[in-house]
Design brief:
The complex is a heteropentamer, with one copy of chain A (about 325 residues), one copy of chain B (about 450 residues), one copy of chain C (about 400 residues) and two copies of chain D (about 260 residues). With about 450 residues, chain B is mostly helical. Chain B has a domain of about 250 residues: Orthogonal Bundle (MetI-like fold), CATH 1.10.3720.10. Chain B has 17 helices and one strand. The longest helix of chain B is centred in the C-terminal third of the chain and has 36 residues. The N terminus of chain D is likely disordered. Chain D is an alpha/beta fold and about 260 residues long. The chains are: A alpha/beta (about 325), B mainly alpha (about 450), C alpha+beta (about 400), D alpha/beta (about 260). The complex binds adenosine-5'-triphosphate (2 copies) and magnesium ion (MG) (2 copies). The site of one adenosine-5'-triphosphate has 11 residues of chain E, from strand 2 and helix 2.
């Protein structure tokens, strides 16, 4: 502990990563205990960067209430659990967000039979949500600012929210839009439900680490940037070996043929190569877990590269 | 008095026993006595019978007649108006093992099997080798289960010896252990000398403890070639049983200590025990669990962390210990003063009196109470679902929302299944408690 | 306990005698024990302080004044998103007391009925009671809670429909909707009339008892009392020109679907989370109370009711004057425990979205990170409750203890 | 134990009504399940009669007198108390119980009530007597059984003999016309037996109709008009005490008497 | 109850050491809270002496002998057993208890252990004797109290008299130099008293130093060197049994003797 997280991680031989146990597309384990999801892939990316091996990671399933203590106490080295970056969390929970891995926003899911097409029509609605998240607060802000009465029914666990919503206890189910897509899949008839277009909050989700360990912070931060940069550079899991030899100086720096960037942050120089080799680039991760071809079918939207109409943008490696 | 002369009477022939009127015996007599003994009772009987029918019909319809028994996904149950047993069938392995890797589940099976094999003769009053058996259950079994379930091979690295003498690893740990043991034995020896006890005696006691510790470390540190399985992947009945059994095994000695503490003549010890017991009994388990899951990490120095399951276990064990202490105290109180005095008069010391005379008797008396409190504990394990552990109930709840099987009846089927499992466990335990209670009564009378 | 002249004649040195003195040993042990405790507590406090400081969380209860910002679905006192955390906790606390209080009443009534039923000479009734007890006691409460909550949700009509009873009670998935009394000027007088009615009824009851003692005949004090309690407020109500009006729940079955159903802000709604929790708590606890009651009644020997019968007391009188007073001595202590258990178990509310103290506190904890303070508040509340109860119980117990030779 | 009385007093001679029937049992039969406990019991008790029932254990003595105030139900035959026939009619049962007092082997006082409250409970609630009056009556009977000073104690504070006397007083407070005793002294220590028997003798002297299951043969000799011997659920022999003790007719009676008298 | 022995045997005459003090109590005082139970007790017991303590209930007899092996703590004065002074020193208390055997009114056998285990427990755990040897010793003493065949039964299966004999054997297994008896026969049925007293007489014959609280005056006559009479927490009178019984000096002693002898 005293030596700094990076050294600790290297010593014990794996990254301990806090994830969501039951959010399809972000963090979920199947029957065999295989984990998948964007957040999970990010953990693997960090493992790849450090060890050159995406499997050197252990997952701690965390619920909303425990996640911050788990990180603060050192139970996990890294929190990658669809957590919204807010100022108060930076300032008063002792966290440092390394960046944004997914631009999300809070939305509403309703039954199609309600005949509602906009969140602004939800005046007087009963809304189900999970307690202990920013969603409860956003919800209150949204309805108050639009002067609409509402009633919130807040459950401890996702499963309960969904069961109550399905039973008809509330008109709307609110959480981050990505979560809504994931939860909708679990309903008996997903097609009977729709997600309203309004996004009522900014929910930049990102990995977080403990405050006060800059070295570790840098490693995790640049792992995220490497994923985005790779997409920009057109480097994929499949083609990186072949492009490794290309003449593009940017790629050369990326794969570690040129420069000493890896050792600068306490890793090997081929760290970024390992990341892509291990988990693919950001786009690949997105597509594999939540993209249009998956059951969730979420469009890239804001999460597209800045060059393609989105706002994902990473500082260059140089 | 002469008026009475006429009443003199001597029976000439005896009246033999006659058969009771039909209204007294057989099914009719039974029904008359138990169901129709008065007009009100007759009405009640009819109402009760109707009530039973009214309750049972929907239950039977839902669980049996309208139930779906086969199918591969939710399509089978989507339209069902009865239980979706197909879903339970599909998920049964998960309900038992959680996400424990499939190719490693034999390890869990062994643990279950060992428990059954060791526990059954323990529960049968007449079965021999009770002491050995208990020893196995309280020492070998937990250790073996720990290694089997987690994979063992925990990284013992040692703490304080400088790296340049010997690097972190089992060797450093062993060295440090030996060093510490040596110091402890030395200190104890000195202390014993000072107290005028025979040094060899206290030394050997400490030696046994340290030796046992060494064995424990050797076993949990050794590499048996088992794949490690994180507790995060444990789930279902496995977690339920781990929480319940560990809570029980850990709370017993703790409970004994607390109970003795509560009866101690030393005010400080007594007050501390009473405070602990009453605080634990005064608050809901779930706040204790919250505390274990949210607050315990705050209590620990930076970098020291506990596994989440372990934290829940600590919370449960401490909580249970308080209840156990009260049960055991009841047992201690039932031991007559004469037993204490008899033991004192033959020259036994306090620890000897407790170990040889009082506790064996007290614990026997409280077996029903212990089983009773084990039932509560077993039911309470479901609360760990609230702090995000996947016990049987948590696992069922999580799976009911699995996209593959979600249907209107899936959730309720899961709950019914969980209810049946818990009921079977708890009911048999309560029967067992009643059985031992009767047996104790008899042996006390006889 | 002066040890006299230690070691004056017998062997062994003074030092050995002191070390072997049990009271000296006890003292040393206790000092060591306290030292260990203090060290332990200090270590924990130190770690906690350091951890909190690292996380930038200010210790102390100052956060209670900050704005909560989240909504609560059931509140007995005024509360909005703009209220403080402290107020939110108060709402939670009152909700706990409400569900526990009502649960206790229902569980007691049900428990007594089932306990007596279990001793019924009617075989069927006794069997039903036994089955009830054996089933409910051996299934975890949390499971029952889920079962009842979701069963209730599935059994009642959806948000846009309703069942109506007696014209004023409406039930749907949104809960039980009833008229909400609105108090105008003069409502206080009606309240006063009610209080006067109750006092008068008590006086009448007392008069009735006196009268019975004096003449042997019991006047119908009960009926007079009921008439007073209902009649007086009614008279006041009409005499003052109906100062209490009722805000009837408005049910709308026109317009866009979302607008249909009961309108927010009209009438009074008792939410289904409350019912689910109440049902689970009281049914579960009733099973335990029933066992307590059975044990209490069985503890009163058969001879007691035989003696009462042979004196000519009827069944009801035997129960009332002979069996129940004796059974109660046995029943009350465990009954109190059950009440405490029920109150503690109400913390499971968190699983079904009923905003009790633990549930609201959990949200506050999560928003503020003030774990130590929140857990302290929980502990103080529940501990205070049990200490208070056992204190009262001890007094009561001492008063009713049977006088022995 | 029988010495306490056996030695002294001569039999009490008292008028017994020859026409006024206090209680009649006609061909009464009772079964416990398959077991035939009472067989063809015929018994007529005149007002003022004092009857002692004896017999070996299990012969049905207790059952017989418990049938009289319907603590047990009989299945065949008639029981007529004070001209009221005992049937399933609750009102009649109530009436009979009001006329019949019963004293048990184990006193069965109500431990949660004081002695005085024990005695006034039934008068107040059954006879609807004003409390004051009930207390006066109770004190009267308590004085008669010689424990007025214990009125405000609880049963647990009294000795067995005192408790049994309270039980008698409690029954008397209902002014019963018939008193039933079921082995009232057999749970008592020897020195207490006398004090209870003295009270019973006093009652007999006042002409109370009494049916008493007891093995106190001295008491039987001194007080009873008639001794009934039961065995196997039937009445084997009945006669005046003098004849009964000196000249029993039936073999079983002889055997029984030889056992208890030489004890 | 005293007949069992009183009739027959003549007193046993045995050598008593005149120099070897087994036990000495000097000005011992003890209080229970405010209550002064033992007052200035002075008692010197020589090795081989057999002392019987008698006195009315509550006079402090039990308390006195319980002080000797420190089941009760005294507050003033000295108790010296076998040259060891009883103070708060745990080691000394242990030593004294090892030298002193005690037999209680209610036996206090350990119900969860067999007879043999009851007897071997202390030798094994206190004297650190090998189990085999402890069992041999135990069997020896069990044979002496005439119940070797019960060795593997549990106390609950034995009669009271047998249990008390086991209790004596259990004490003997520790080879005590002094034996204390606190009314060892008063919880027994008359027919069992004799078997226990016989064992005690046997012990006396072998020269065991014994202090015995008992009301068995026959035993006292036959066995004791000295009878001590206590009342109100003090020793009122002590003398040889012959003189004590035939010619008591103190008024209270006379009263007491008249009561228990004519009972
Ligand atoms: N409630 C009952 N159910 C079944 N059998 C009973 C019941 N009460 C009594 N008996 C049986 O009826 C028989 C007569 O019992 P009863 O008590 O009348 O005898 P008793 O003559 O009073 O004997 P004792 O002198 O022992 O009191 C006995 O064999 C007894 O076991
Ligand atoms: N633990 C105690 N606390 C307070 N008082 C006690 C205690 N033990 C005994 N006493 C009192 O001390 C007095 C002497 O008691 P002790 O048992 O020595 O009398 P005893 O002579 O053995 O009488 P007995 O013949 O009834 O056994 C009695 O008044 C008793 O009530
Ligand atoms: Mg009888
Ligand atoms: Mg005594």
């Amino acid at each position: 502990a005293s030596a700094g997280t990076l050294e600790d991680v290297k010593a014990k031989g794996f990254v301990q990563c806090g994830v969501n146990p039951s959010l399809i597309g972000f963090g979920v384990a199947d029957e065999k205990g295989e984990w998948s999801g964007i957040d999970v892939s990010f953990c693997r990316a960090v493992a790849s960067a450090i060890f050159g091996d995406p499997t050197k990671v252990k997952f701690s399933p965390l619920n909303a209430k425990e996640r911050f203590t788990a990180l603060q106490s050192g139970e996990v080295d890294l929190l990658s659990r669809n957590t919204t970056w807010t100022m108060s969390r930076d300032s008063s929970l002792g966290l440092m967000f390394v960046g944004v891995s997914y631009y999300d926003g809070q939305g509403f899911m309703v039954r199609k039979s309600l005949g509602v097409s906009s969140a602004l029509e939800l005046s007087g609605a009963k809304v189900c949500t999970q307690t202990g998240t920013t969603t409860e607060l956003n919800l209150a802000d949204y309805f108050r600012s639009h002067n609409m009465p509402y009633e919130v029914v807040a459950f401890e666990k996702n499963e309960e929210v969904l069961q109550a919503y399905e039973a008809g206890r509330c008109d709307a189910y609110t959480t981050d839009a990505s979560g809504l897509y994931a939860e909708r899949l679990k309903l008996t008839n997903p097609d009977d439900h729709m997600i309203l277009p309004e996004i009522i909050s900014k929910e930049p989700l990102g990995p977080a680490v403990r405050q006060g360990d800059d070295k570790w912070f840098t490693v995790v931060k640049w792992t995220l940037f490497a994923l985005i940069n790779a997409e920009e550079l057109g480097l994929t899991k499949a083609n990186i070996d072949e492009k490794k030899t290309a003449d593009n100086p940017e790629i050369k720096r990326f794969v570690g043929v040129e420069g000493d960037f890896g050792t600068g942050i306490g890793l090997t120089n081929d760290w970024a190569y390992n990341v892509i080799k291990g988990v693919g680039n950001y786009g690949e991760i997105f597509d594999a877990n939540v993209g249009p071809s998956t059951k969730l079918g979420i469009a890239r939207g804001l999460n597209n590269l800045w060059s393609k109409g989105g706002i994902q943008y990473a500082p260059p490696i140089r | 008095m002469s008026t009475m002369a006429s009443t003199a009477y001597v029976r000439s022939e005896m009246v033999g026993p006659q058969k009771a009127p039909p209204s007294m015996i057989g099914p009719i007599g039974w029904a008359r006595k138990n169901l129709f003994s008065s007009p009100i009772n007759s009405v009640l009987s009819i109402v009760a019978a109707l009530f039973i029918v009214w309750c049972l019909i929907p239950v039977i319809r839902f669980t049996l007649i309208d139930a779906v028994w086969t199918g591969d996904d939710r399509a089978a149950c989507a339209q069902a108006s009865g239980a979706c047993w197909a879903y339970v069938k599909a998920y049964l392995p998960q309900f038992i093992y959680g996400r424990y890797p499939i190719d490693q589940r034999w390890r869990v099976d062994i643990v279950f099997l060992m428990l059954a094999v060791a526990l059954v003769p323990m529960l049968i009053p007449r079965a021999p080798f009770k002491r050995l058996n208990a020893l196995f259950l309280l020492t070998v079994y937990p250790l073996a289960s720990f290694v089997l379930l987690t994979g063992g091979h925990i990284g013992l690295r040692g703490r304080f010896l400088p790296d340049d003498i010997v690097g972190p690893g089992p060797v450093r740990f062993a060295l440090e252990f030996a060093l510490v043991s040596f110091v402890i034995i030395l200190l104890v020896g000195l202390g014993a000398r000072l107290l005028g006890l025979r040094a060899s005696q206290s030394g050997s006691a400490i030696g046994i403890v340290l030796g046992a510790l060494a064995v424990v470390f050797m076993v949990v540190g050794a590499d048996f070639g088992l794949v490690p399985v994180e507790t995060a992947n444990w789930g279902g009945l496995l977690v339920t049983l781990v929480v319940a059994v560990t809570g029980m095994v850990a709370s017993l000695p703790l409970g004994v200590i607390l109970a003795l503490g509560r009866r101690s003549k030393m005010p400080v010890v007594r007050i501390a025990s009473v405070t602990f017991i009453e605080v634990c009994r005064g608050v809901p388990l779930i706040t204790v669990l919250f505390m274990a899951s949210v607050m315990l990490p705050l209590f620990l120095p930076e970098g020291v962390t506990f596994d989440k399951l372990l934290r829940a276990l600590i919370g449960v064990a401490l909580f249970q210990a308080a209840y156990m202490a009260e049960v055991i105290r009841g047992g201690l109180q039932s031991i007559s003063r004469g037993q204490y005095e008899g033991a004192m008069a033959i020259g036994l010391s306090y620890p000897q009196r407790m170990r040889l005379i009082i506790l064996p008797q007290a614990l026997r008396v409280v077996i029903p109470g212990i089983v009773g409190s084990f039932i509560s504990l077993f039911k309470d394990t479901t609360l760990v679902a609230i702090i995000g552990l996947f016990d049987l109930l948590g696992q069922i709840q999580a799976s009911a929302n699995d996209a593959k099987w979600a249907s209107p009846v899936t959730g309720i089927t899961g709950y019914i299944f969980a209810a049946m499992v818990f009921w079977a466990f708890c009911f048999s335990m309560s029967r067992y408690a009643a059985f031992t209670e009767r047996r104790l009564d008899r042996s006390r009378r006889g | 306990m002066a040890a006299g002249d230690i070691g004056a004649r017998s062997f062994g040195g003074r030092a050995a005698a002191i070390i072997n003195n049990p009271s000296v040993r006890g003292l040393v042990f206790q000092i060591a024990f306290v030292a260990a405790l203090v060290w332990f507590a200090w270590d924990i406090a130190d770690n906690t302080a350091r951890n909190l400081q690292k996380a930038n969380i200010a210790a102390g209860f100052g956060f209670l004044d900050r704005t909560a910002g989240f909504g609560i679905v059931q509140k007995l006192v005024y509360y909005t998103e703009a209220s403080s955390y402290g107020r939110a906790l108060l709402v939670g606390l009152l909700n706990t007391l409400l569900v526990a209080g009502l649960g206790i009443v229902i569980a007691t009534i049900l428990g007594f009925i089932i306990g007596v039923a279990r001793l019924s000479p009617n075989w069927l009734i006794a069997r039903i009671a036994t089955a009830y007890i054996e089933i409910l006691r051996n299934i975890p409460l949390l499971l029952q809670l889920f079962f009842w909550y979701f069963a209730v949700l599935r059994a009642v009509p959806g948000m846009r429909e309703k069942w109506t009873f007696l014209g004023i009670f409406h039930i749907n998935i949104g809960g039980l909707h009833v008229p909400r009394p609105v108090f105008a000027d003069g409502a206080g007088t009606v309240g006063l009339a009610l209080i006067i009615g109750v006092v008068a009824a008590v006086l009448v009851a007392r008069w009735g008892r006196k009268r019975q003692e004096a003449t042997g005949q019991a006047p119908p004090a009960g009926w007079i009392g009921v008439a007073l309690i209902i009649g007086l407020p009614l008279i006041a109500y009409f005499a003052l020109g109906r100062p209490i009006s009722f805000d009837v729940p408005v049910f709308n079955d026109q317009g866009p679907i979302l607008r249909r159903g009961f309108q927010a802000g009209s009438g009074m709604t008792v939410i289904p989370e409350f019912f689910g929790l109440l049902l689970a708590l009281s049914l579960y606890t009733a099973a335990y109370i029933a066992e307590t009651v059975r044990a209490g009644i069985s503890a009163v020997g058969h001879g007691q009711s035989e003696a009462a019968h042979s004196l000519g007391l009827r069944n009801g009188q035997t129960l009332r004057y002979v069996v129940i007073p004796q059974a109660m001595r046995v029943i009350i202590p465990p009954l109190t425990n059950q009440y405490l258990n029920l109150t503690k178990n109400s913390s499971l509310a968190v699983a079904v979205a009923y905003p009790d103290l633990v549930s609201v506190g959990g949200t506050v904890l999560n928003q503020t990170g003030q774990a130590v303070e929140m857990v302290t508040i929980w502990m103080i509340f529940y501990l205070g409750l049990s200490l208070l109860t056992s204190f009262v119980m001890n007094i009561w117990n001492r008063r009713v203890a049977l006088v022995e030779r | 134990m029988t010495e306490a009385i056996a030695v002294a007093e001569p039999p009490i001679a008292l008028k017994v009504s020859s026409t006024d029937v206090a209680l009649e049992m006609i061909d009464v039969n009772k079964w416990f399940g398959e077991f035939h406990v009472l067989r063809d019991i015929n018994l007529k008790v005149m007002r003022g009669e004092r009857i002692v029932i004896a017999g070996p254990s299990g012969s049905g003595k207790s059952t017989l007198i418990r049938c009289i105030n319907r603590l047990e139900e009989h299945q065949k035959g008639k029981i007529i108390v004070d001209q009221i026939e005992l049937t399933n009619d609750l009102r009649k049962i109530d009436e009979v119980r009001r006329e019949v007092g019963m004293v048990f082997q184990h006193f069965n006082l109500f431990p949660h009530l004081t002695i005085l409250e024990n005695c006034t409970l039934a008068p107040i609630h059954v006879r609807k007597m004003p409390k004051k009056e009930a207390e006066d009556v109770a004190m009267h009977y308590l004085t008669r059984v010689k424990i007025p000073e214990q009125a405000n104690k609880y049963p647990g504070q009294l000795s067995g003999g005192q408790q049994q006397r309270v039980a008698i007083a409690r029954s008397l407070c209902m002014s019963p016309r018939v008193m039933l005793f079921d082995e009232p002294t057999s749970a008592l220590d020897p020195e207490m037996i006398k004090e209870v028997l003295d009270v019973m003798v006093g009652l007999a002297l006042e002409g109370m109709t009494m049916i008493c299951v007891t093995h106190e043969m001295g008491f039987a000799r001194q007080v009873a008009n008639r001794v009934i011997f039961m065995d196997g659920g039937q009445i084997i022999e009945q006669d005046e005490p003098e004849t009964f003790f000196t000249n029993p007719k039936h073999e079983r009676t002889k055997l029984f008497l030889s056992q208890i008298l030489h004890h």
